[in-house]
Amino acid sequence: MNRQETSPALSGPAHPSAFGGQQLLAPGVMRLRLPLSNAFLLGEPGHPWVLLDAGTPGSAAMIVSAAESRFGPGAVPQAIVLTHGHLDHIGGLFSLRRRWPEVPIYAHPLELPYLTGRSAYPPPDPTVGGSMSRLSPLFVPGPFDFGQQVRPLDELPALHSWELLHTPGHAPGHVSLWRPADRLLIAGDAFVTTVQESALSALTLMPRQIHRPPAYYTPDWDAARESVNRLRALGPALAISGHGDAVGGPELERGLRELADHFDQQARPNRGRYVAEPARTDLSGVTSLPPKPAGRHLITWAVVALLALLVMRSRRSSS
Questions:
Q1: Which residues pair with residue 143 across a beta bridge?
Q2: Is it the case that residue 93 has pLDDT exceeding 50?
Q3: Is residue 265 domain-resident?
Q4: Could you tell me if 266 and 95 are in contact, meaning their C-beta atoms sit under 8 angstroms apart?
Q5: Eight-class DSSP state of 290
Q6: Is pLDDT above 80 for 154?
Q7: Distance separating alpha carbons of residues 309 and 319, to the nearest angstrom
Q8: Closest Cα to residue 165, out of 151, 173, 181, 176?
Q9: pLDDT more than 70, % of the chain
């Protein structure tokens, strides 16, 4: 089968200009741009659909608005599926689970301890470099508890055309979604398409590039490398991640090749808590952690940086 004939056609702008903006990436794949991350509405109007990821806290209203715009008033998903359970991907669930109490929330079994109150994630590492990394102590690692709505991820009728791939490293039970028919990849945070360690890049989505998983919240770099290699081997025509814009064609092929071939030199941080030794986890959650890196006043600096960022955004919006 000719690869060019099966490549998905990207429609809409390069990226939605505002939070809450929507972009139809391919049939049945609507991207929703949320503050600091993406969510996805998977399915066609008139058919069962799935919400993939739920953004940062405060994102629920944008998700509901986008869902009703695409699927009609009162639209309810067949399921909510999580690529992983970090706060910037589950924040909307705190409100959505009250709005949709009968909707199951699915995640890989290795993610369940962090979504059912049994364990917090390995703590973020603010020492890996970048302004967003310095803010990472504010991104609480849980534990989060969404109760009996949470179920182990299995095949879903609304995702019959997708393969669910276990791509750990950034999180123990991280998954990516692959649609062979048009070679479309939703990578989650196995890799991203913006420099997520930079607060400015995380907000503006520039520069656009194939980039490592967010370093401040990646506790297993060996597993992350293997996941990138696995996704590269698929030969995706179009990829969209949890952070950043869609990338396809030669740009995607070249970027994934560079990331995979030089992962340890370019992606693995030069310093950090998990660089030499990963966090250890199992089905119960975190079992052991490497020593905490030296450093003082990190949370104080994170608060200062966050306030500066909020002031900068306020000035931009008023100008």
A1: none
A2: yes
A3: yes
A4: no
A5: P
A6: yes
A7: 16
A8: 176
A9: 88
